[in-house]
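In this notation, each integer encodes one residue's backbone shape. One such record reads:

___
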Amino acid sequence: MTTNKTYIIAEAGVNHNGDINLAKKLIEAAADAGADAVKFQTFKADLLVSPQAIKAEYQQKTTDASESQYEMLKKLELDKNAHEILIDHCRKFNIQFLSTPFDNESAELLSAVFDLPFIKIPSGEITNAPLLLKIAQTGKPVILSTGMSTLGEIEDALGVLAFGYLKECTPSLHAFRKVLFSDEGQVLLKKKVSLLHCTTEYPAPVAEVNLKAMDTLVNAFGLPVGFSDHTNGIAIALAAVARGASILEKHFTLNKSLPGPDHKASLEPTEFKEMVSSIRQIEKAIGTGHKLPSPSEIKNIAIARKSLVASCRIEIGERLSSEKITAKRPCNGISPMHFMDISEHKAHKSFEKDELITWKNLI
């Protein structure tokens, strides 16, 4: 997915805390902040984790440490009816509803039932070949997050997606890798897949962000590349856009002090709005890359640059030696670039000190 501007996704995720009214308020705040889309998460805890799965370290700090990951996620599920309500609310506020599926049933719900324009695949699912295959077989464009991944793992994931888009039979890792480098597979990947560089930690340490990896992804795969930002604040997000991120995803909450796993690593509405405004300014500042005087600069050329003038009185017929000319503002005569050439000429008239020298008054 590519656009002429950075596509900004407000990652509401599970920051609705299982409350549909809080989710609706997140949609309204994301729209007001200027986000292009607001993204939730679609999963069934029974299909996502086993009851014994432990929580991540950051989740243990931000939620009840005694509950399992399953218990935490069970409270954060959004059912089909909740999706319908939130999608309708997004329409009212003119913002795109998105969600990330974590299982095949959820992928089917988002693609076939709700017909979302594209599917976001989270970093944790990049090695989940069955889910990648299911999503690709829907034909939907994909945004693939690459946190925790090596180039080889990303390559294999892209192979699965290419295989699914081509609707090939008899899947295998060998078949995925073969299709990846086929002409048909490459055409479909370039048409349908964007990558997000990501550091999967909450919050992500700035020293581990490695924004240069965005360049590596572009060079390796030739696909649009964006950034899923888990750092605190907005500085790194702005740097990513300045480096060419075509998509920017950032966690979003109404209040960082709310209970829940992701609130503390999210932006509040005023911060998100500032980020969006700054990104739009950066987009304008990036420009075309052509090095020419800008329209606003042209009027300053005559003021800032210099012309050749007499550094002392010069008599008629006198040769203009380098000791008798100098460069001073304004720029309304002969450019100082001709300083070395002008000594070949004589004065056709007399010049007073600081008087502008013009070609028509030289012989």
